[in-house]
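hiii so my PI (J.) wants the whole complex modelled not just the main chain, which honestly fair. so below is everything: three entries, each one labled with what it is. i double checked the lines twice but i was tired so who knows lol
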Amino acid sequence: MADNLSLRQVVEAYMARVPAGAVTTYGDLAALAGQPTAARLVGGIAHTGNEQLPWHRLVNSRGKLAAGYPGGRRTQQQLLEKEGVSCTDFLVDDFDLRRWRPR
DNA sequence: CTCGTGACGGCGA
DNA sequence: ATCGCCGCCACGA
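here's the output for the full assembly
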């Protein structure tokens, strides 16, 4: 499905669906979009796409916060903790449990 | 039209 | 454990 849409469109759609208090990875979104190897795309989308998207809920495959976020990972961690996601040194606690999954 | 780059991921040395 | 390379798709110049 959504074969008509570009990966970008699909990824944005999934990103928008990630609920507060949960996190997802670039690779997961890419995989959901059908391109598990296009994790880079997700990264690019996160920063070039809609600012209202919950980009702060995106972490790398290890549950660590984004590497090159222009405001500093500190900001992202603040946002996550504010949503109930506790982090320790830029690492999401219980990452596996908080990993969001579509249904 | 072509070229380069990127909020990443996984594997090899 | 660390470091480096390639691959992937989309978009800007």
